[in-house]
Amino acid sequence: MFKVLGEAVAKFQADYPGEAFWGLRTIWSTMRDQGPRPIIEDADDCLATKLAFPQLVAGYDLAGSEIVGRPIVDLLPELFWFRKQCALEGVNIPFFFRAAECGVSDTAEGNIFDAMLLGSRRIGNPLTLHKHPGLVETIRTKRILIECSPVSGTGTVDLNHAFPALLAQGVSCVLCHDNSGMLSGSGHDVGRPMTNIFWQTLQAWEGIDLATLGSLAENSVRWAAFEDQDPDTWYVHTTHPFFFTFAHLCCVMVQISLPTGHCPRGLRPQNPGEILRNGRLADIKFLSFRLRTVREASTGTGVKAARLRSWAVEWEQFCLWVVTEYGETSGDGAGSIEDRARAAV
Predict the structure, then answer these.
(1) Residue 44 within a domain
(2) pLDDT tens column, 63-121
(3) Largest alpha-carbon pair distance within the chain?
């Protein structure tokens, strides 16, 4: 399969030169409801595939029901064996675990703690994370991205999803498809599942606006595994107490009216306690994503820095298109809004 994937990527790049295609990488998933030997054999296959196709394997995950399958704590011997073998072979296959996506249970919630302790760089769809303030603070401190899937594979928005609560608590989040975009979808929606997810998220919650969607999209780039990185190069520490994604700065002066939200009015994040009023999100745009400053994020020579710079240019162009197209509807001249938007970036 990986040989075919590599050939397909190379063919696409040859057939469509100049297209904004950033490549394709996979996270290897092992079914967790197996015994030690099958899991070790599958993990060994992952390692062999990484050695044969280093650019196509980005990380390792455990798939399957957390209720029926084995919890992470029970899989520690296999996982430590896998990590040791990776070290012996001189390859880097980080963990990208999903945890607590199967509802409330001691086993599922324990997987969040274990995923964090094992250094998972992203955690997939932890539905009960927001109920553990101490764990939330640790997730923020360790700069772990939370993958959220508020739109199910059937296209229905779960209004009780933890996604808005996690944003209100200052957790770095990203929108994801509940199932792989390659394996689900039907009709005219099959080719653009993420477009529908962003649109439905915008319509579902009053506090979501252009700046929020932009930050979520930027986080997808910021925490993407474009290339192999060790922990020292994956995380970049900063001494700034608060800092914001490029998307927030682009939108801060764009005072347009959207059907389901409003634009930022300031730059400093609010206290989470002030954000949740009467059980509803009053404002979630200014939550700090504690990774690095806007300028620090896109400086450097790595692939991720180049991708962030490219994304920032496209995002600024999109914001200017929005104010040019719809600025008059806000009662403000489009030109003056453009000037302020440029000043913000």
Answers:
(1) no
(2) 988 888 899 999 999 999 999 999 999 999 999 999 988 766 777 788 999 999 999 99
(3) 67
Q: How many CA atoms lie within 13 A of 203 on its CB side?
A: 10
pLDDT at 191: 52
Give 153's contacts (C-beta < 8 A, 6+ positions apart). Answer: 177, 178, 179, 184
N- to C-terminal Cα separation, the chain: 43
Tokens found for residue 214: 């932009």
Residue 197: DSSP 8-state: H
Report how far residue 287's alpha carbon sits from residue 289's, in angstroms, rounded to the nearest whole number: 6
pLDDT, tens only, 139-153: 998 889 999 999 876
Q: Token pair of 61, please?
A: 């995950």
Strand, coil or helix: 211: helix
Please answer whether residues 172 and 224 qualify as being in contact, where contact means their C-beta atoms are separated by less than 8 angstroms.
no
Alpha helix locations (H) across the chain?
Answer: 2-15, 36-52, 76-89, 106-117, 133-141, 163-168, 193-204, 210-222, 231-234, 246-251, 272-275, 294-297, 303-326, 334-344
Domain assignment of residue 246, yes or no: yes
Give the chain's radius of gyration (CA, Å): 21
Specify the residue for token string 């959207």: 258
Nearest to 122 by CA among 220, 54, 12: 220
Alpha helices in 33-75 (DSSP H): 36-52
**What are 61's strand-pairing partners?**
29
What's the structural domain count of the chain?
1
Handedness of CA 112, 117, 118, 122 (dihedral sign): positive
Two tokens at 272?
């989470």
Q: Of 40, 83, 32, 84, give the one whose Cα is nearest residue 62.
A: 32
Q: Is residue 339 part of a domain?
A: yes
- The tokens describing 92, both together, are 């880097």
Structural domain boundaries, residue 311: 230-345
The verdict on pTM exceeding 0.70 is yes
Helices (H) then strands (E): counts for the chain: 14, 7
Q: Which residues of the chain have pLDDT under 50?
A: 181-188, 236-244, 249, 252-295, 331-335, 337-338, 340-345
Residue 254 lies in a domain: yes
